[in-house]
Amino acid sequence: MKFQWIAAGMVFLCIQTCQTATGQTDLTKNTTKNTTKKHQQQVCEGLKLSSPTPLDFSKTEKELLCDELGPKAWSSVPLKQREYFLKNFLQSRGYYYPEFSANEETLQVDTMNQSLIRKVEIKGENRGEKKGHTAGDDIDPKRYWKVLGRPMTPKSLDEIENWISKELGKRGYPCFTLETRAYPRTETVTIKVETNQKQKFVEVLSEPIPGIVAGVERRYDAFSTEEDFNALQLDLTAKRIIDDELVVSTNFTSRCEADKLIIEQRTTAGEPRLVTFGFGFDTEEFAIAEAGWKNTRIWEMASMAEAYTRVSYRIQKASLGFNWYYAPMVSRHFIRSSVQYTRQNEEDFDSRTSELLSGPSWNFDKGFLNFSLWPAVSFSHTEIVRGSGDRSTESLGLRLRTQIQSHDFEYYRSDPRSGFELGFDSRLANKAIGSDNSVSTHLIRGTHLLNIFQLDPPIWIAGLRYKLATTLVGANTDDDSVPANLKQRLGGTADVRGFRRQEIPDDGALTSAYLGAELRIGNVMPFGLQPIVFADFGKVGQKDLDLDSNLYWSPGAGIHWKSPIGAVRATIAHGFVSSSEDKKNTGSSQTQGPGSTKKQEASTQMERWQLYLSLGEQF
Amino acid sequence: MITFLKWILVLFAIVSTVVLGGVGLVFVSPETMVNNQTLNYVKNNFLSNVVNWKNIDIAIHSKSVWSKAISLYIEDLELTTETINLSMPEAFLKTDLQVAPWSFQVDSIGPITLKQMTVKVMPSVTPPPTAVDQADPFDINSYISMLNDIVIKKIDVTADSIEIVSDKQVTEFNGRLSLSGLHESNKDHLKLELFGIKGSYVNKLDVSATLDGYDSILDPNSTVQLFANLSLTSGDSTLTGTLFPGEKQRRSFIIGGKASADKAHVAFDVNGTIEPHKLVSFLSLEAKGLADQLPTLKLEPCQLDGSWGDLIQNDLTLKLDCEAGASRLNNIQEDLVGIFAPNDLRLKILSELTLKNSGASKLITTDTTLTINQTHDELVDLKGNVRVSGEFDTAAEHSIDELALTLDLAARIDSFKKIVTRLKGTGLEVPAPANQLEGPVACGVKGKFSVNDLKGRFPFDCKFDLKSTKQRLLADTTGSLSIKPTKSGPVPVLDLDVTVDGIELMLPSLELTSDIPRLTPDSRIVLNSEEKSRAPGLKKSAKLKQHQKSQPTNFVYGIRIRSKKTDSILIHSNLAKEPIPVSVNAVIKSESPVTGFIAVDNFKVSLLRRQAEVLRFRVALSEDPNDQILDGLVRFDNNDYTIDLKIFGNAAAPKYLFESDPPLSQSDLMAVLLFGKSPDALDSDKLKTVDDTRAAIADGAVNLLSMYYLAATPVESVGYNPQSGVFSAKVNLQKGLSLTVGTDTNAQKEVGLRKRLGAGWSVETTAIRNDDSNAKKGIAMLRWGKRY
């Protein structure tokens, strides 16, 4: 029965949205065919309008159409001139064949049907006389569904041209010619796309950034000169630079001069030091405050130092970090070091950890992927104020953080739609090498997104998230001495959303596995609302690399709202606990011991509705 | 010898007796020589190819030795020559002759009866006569003089079919000619009836003429009574005429005609008297549908006089003195001439036309003056005259010698409002805001034009002196109209200079809180779906242009428009506190695209929230925005810097370049201009705006209107995506009111990782990872930041 909920939800959302992609949504219902009932509208004295839907005219338009408005020189616009103006105003609204009739001083207008964009045709053409495959052939205009069924207006044509420009830029054609013809009678738009040969990236002409070596910004490049041009990679590069606060703003522009591609980067550097204060909220951590300081351009190789403090009811954290670009040339290798203090105040434990990390870091891009790697030496001191494990432990070990992400995942992180991210995180400690215990943790996590039908903007976005984490306890270490903060837990907005934050299990586990599937319906509902249905599944194990029989899963639904101040996300899910042992024991509960009954009671208590509200979460 | 002589004399006497006897026999009894048998013999043996008949009966009656009366009856006569085919069932002819050895004279002819004759006359194929015998075979005077002494009795000719074939046309008709007598009594009577004349130019012509006392034709001093009816039908046109007999030598006549062609209908009446050597008549004419703009034209009765000496040999002079009035229906036509032509035009037509008889050719000399008296039409006062003078030869084809057309016309419209009112409801309605102007418009044309060599020109000028509240239009227009001979024929040539001395026009108030209304159709949208079959795009346009260029034009014009001063044109707009001075220098030619420019020079304006001066801003005129080359220089005076904004490129993709003295970097310049501060003093948001603005400007993504918004209103934020070319700027219009302009106003709605709120505040989505629990999630933080 529970799975039927999910299926029903999915089907409902699909039915609601499938019509949109085929251009038959409510969006178009008002405008497609000339309805028998027409809206009669008196725009002003002397102008009556009959149209399928009410039309709004701007003040300037009314001044040109109506005698009583505007300066005196325009107080008596002849009927013919009014007709001319109105024709153009109606054309900008998609009405191309209005019928005019003049009765004395009154202009009666029947706007007739609104012309919609039913079909978009792209005709590719190679510059010169070259025949064969063209760039335009690769672009399927049906993917740009949002103009289909919309009124055929100059603005819509601009949008189609912009979209094609973007698509060509992503396909290696930065320079092209578009010739658009729209035929309101047949409701068809034809765009002739003329391109040169596919271009490869060239050396970027960039402005120097004050105080640092010229070309430092190249370490953020998501492209290399051997690769085919892709405008998305230029934007991604600019985005990385800005997100890293190296400069205030930077932009790439590309143009062709005599078939030669020129890429220029313009940068507004701003001052190198940045101080920030921030406030946030979610239903897990409640109020969040943060303060930070950063200098992104230390020395001529633009090393970076950062101080950061974050305070919430659950987590208090302070850190000092330094990324040292030690090489005398522009490089993506650096030494990354940090000192941080973290207090984690969860329901089941309270831990305070001080940690020093230092090690070489490297990142690079290959094809459409970005790789980053940080092996570091770690020295930490942990105190468990509340919860299981040794009260105080010190650890000397290794940390390894690796991440692979596709460019589209990285680029659309603010509005996820496609791509994947895969991360590996390991912490190694051994009692024999300066640690109080031999407790290591390993994590594999990933997110895969699929833009179904490759629509742009996407409508159906399917997501798959997974995580496998384990805490390995050495033979020379007792399981009970594993600090509570190193145990694995599930529950909360980060994984199994039908349960409270980190409540699976309440005393922590050594192994956890999570798999979540989600379907988001985007860009079809008003006000930027995006419905979500999802199902999360989790398992934990009290032994390392071993999972218990209990399955924690939670189907749910939610809404994602692109609010003016950021993404607001609300989810409601019901947690369920099912166990093969439970099934086996069904009907013979009388034979079970009190421990088993307690477990069942706990599981039953966990099965409830869980609501989460957060700002900023995307997927 | 003597005997021989005797025999000779005897033989001579016998021969003489036989000859004299024969001759005497012929004179005494000619029927012995000329009778049915001999005529049949001659026909059969000598004239069988020419003439044929079934029966012939000739009777010769000798009144005396010298006076003979001949009666001839022929049945089924057929005559075939190179130039004529004639046949008739019956022919009867009687004539009286004086046959003396010393003379031969026809005393009388008639009666002649030719019944049911059919005749076909064909052109002669014999070579034209040589110079020696160039005497006019149709010298009617010689025939008339021949007939002077012959008594012609009754003649009755009926023709079933007469067909006259000439080189170019065939004329057919049938008719009857009856003549009661000539030189027989004082009341001779000639009646001619011709029916169904058909020719190349005539569909049907019926002529019925009765002439009493026709001796006047032969004797100018005799009395002639002529009554004639004429009926001509050609297509939809008919012409009827009646000539009445008058007293003595005066004959009255009435000629009425109706002609129709397409929509045109012309009806006229001429009545008057013809006296020997003199014509006095009155003409009235009504034409309908000659032109759309002139639905009805009426000529009031006007006098047409003519004089001639000997009708055949001397000149014919016609004089027309007409105090005429041309009237047209007062209905508004959607045609410029029709609208402005006066409803009632008083004309005086003085015309003298002389037809000079010069051998085979006829030389026509004319001097016609059409004087337009000042009309007090409610719209136009028109006065002046049109004169046509010269001569031309009717014999020489397409040759007009010394025919000149002289124009001297002046038109004045006292009230421009009247034009506005007159044009109201037509396709030529005066548009706003010009329809609020009031004042006079005066135009004149004066010149002479030679028709024969198509030389000459008509210079003309127009002056506009129009004003209204906050608007005015002062302009002088001078030009000329001439004819240019081309291979495809003469075409009119208009050469026009328009000097603008002062124009002030009011633009409609433009609302900044919404998009500027689209006033012209989008060229990408094809309303006529048939055009889809053609290849779209610029190449098609180029081909079209080429095609249009190669087409022969039927009107050549060259119009030069220039303003007298740089501020001759002032445009009032709510977007500018002061009127914008505009100058124009444009050349519009029929055979080439528009050239020239529209310029704004030395205009102080508040731009980028500070005083600036538009030193120059020129737009090259062209239909294609890609060819509308821009050249602009705007100078901003700062206490510390002088900053120049150079505008170049074209209207479709304008480009901008900032320069300063002392030199500043582009970032610094943009920061100073947009925010009045150096980049060091700007927060991150403003620096981002500076950077995006720079990128958008460098990429040519900022159109002129967006640049105006950027320049004239406080900028809140600018966003630009170089790859898609999407530019958007949020500008503050007034307190609490902002506007997003650019190529894609929706672009701002996307939520990014960092959503800037202004003044250092932003909402940023931060990926938070809990190092211990390995949980990772995004949190939106309201964040304030400052760089230093």
Task: Describe the model.
The complex is a heterodimer of chains A (619) and B (788). Chain A is 16% helix and 44% strand. With 619 residues, chain A is of the alpha+beta class. Chain A has a 17-stranded antiparallel sheet that branches. A 4-stranded mixed sheet of chain A has the order 1-2-4-3, covered by helices on one side. In chain A, a hairpin with a 7-residue loop joins β24 (511-521) and β25. The longest helix of chain B has 27 residues, at 2-28. In chain B, α8 (666-675) packs across α9 (684-698). In chain B, the strands form 3 sheets. Chain B has a 33-stranded mixed sheet that branches. A 3-stranded antiparallel sheet of chain B has the order 34-35-36. In chain B, strands 37-38-39 form a 3-stranded antiparallel sheet, with helices on one face. Mean pLDDT of chain B is 74; it is low at 131-135, 531-551 and 744-753. Chain B has 10 helices and 39 strands. By secondary structure, chain B is mainly beta. β11 (273-282) of chain A pairs antiparallel with β39 (776-787) of chain B.
Q: Which ranges of chain B are low-confidence, i.e. pLDDT below 50, for 5 or more consecutive residues?
A: 131-135, 531-551, 744-753
Counting DSSP E segments of at least 2 residues, the number of strands of chain A comes to: 29
- Into which percent range does the helicity of residues of chain B fall? 10-25%
How confident is the prediction overall: mean pLDDT of chain B? Answer: 74
Described by strand count, sense and barrel closure, the largest sheet of chain B is: 33 strands, mixed
- Poorly predicted ranges of chain A: 22-35, 587-591
Radius of gyration of chain A, CA atoms, in whole angstroms: 31 Å
Helix content of chain A: 10-25%
Biggest interface, CB < 8 A: A-B, 117 and 97 residues
Distance between the termini of chain B: 173 Å
Question: What is the topology?
Answer:
The complex is a heterodimer of chains A (619) and B (788).
Chain A: H1 2-21, H2 26-29, E1 39-44, E2 47-51, H3 59-65, H4 79-91, E3 99-103, E4 106-110, E5 119-126, H5 154-170, E6 176-183, E7 188-195, E8 204-206, H6 231-243, E9 249-257, E10 260-268, E11 273-282, E12 286-298, E13 303-312, E14 315-324, E15 333-345, E16 350-366, E17 369-386, E18 392-406, H7 407-411, E19 419-429, E20 439-451, E21 460-473, E22 488-490, E23 504-509, E24 511-521, E25 529-541, E26 551-563, E27 566-574, E28 576-578, H8 580-585, H9 594-606, E29 609-615
Parallel strand pairs in A: 2-4, 5-7, 8-10
Antiparallel strand pairs in A: 1-2, 3-4, 6-7, 9-10, 11-12, 12-13, 13-14, 14-15, 15-16, 16-17, 17-18, 18-19, 19-20, 20-21, 21-24, 22-23, 24-25, 25-26, 26-27, 26-28, 27-29
Chain B: H1 2-28, H2 36-45, E1 51-52, E2 55-62, E3 67-80, E4 84-100, E5 103-121, H3 140-147, E6 151-152, E7 155-165, E8 170-179, E9 189-198, E10 204-212, H4 215-218, E11 225-234, E12 237-244, E13 251-261, E14 264-275, E15 278-291, E16 294-308, E17 316-327, H5 336-340, E18 344-358, E19 361-372, E20 381-393, E21 400-413, H6 416-423, E22 441-450, E23 455-468, E24 471-484, E25 491-506, H7 538-550, E26 556-563, E27 569-572, E28 580-589, E29 592-607, E30 610-620, E31 630-637, E32 642-649, E33 654-661, H8 666-675, H9 684-698, H10 704-712, E34 715-721, E35 726-734, E36 737-742, E37 754-758, E38 761-769, E39 776-787
Parallel strand pairs in B: 5-6, 5-7, 25-26, 25-27
Antiparallel strand pairs in B: 1-3, 2-3, 3-4, 4-5, 7-8, 8-9, 9-10, 10-11, 11-12, 12-13, 13-14, 14-15, 15-16, 16-17, 17-18, 18-19, 19-20, 20-21, 21-22, 22-23, 23-24, 24-25, 26-28, 27-28, 28-29, 29-30, 30-31, 31-32, 32-33, 34-35, 35-36, 37-38, 38-39
Helix pairs in contact in B: 8-9
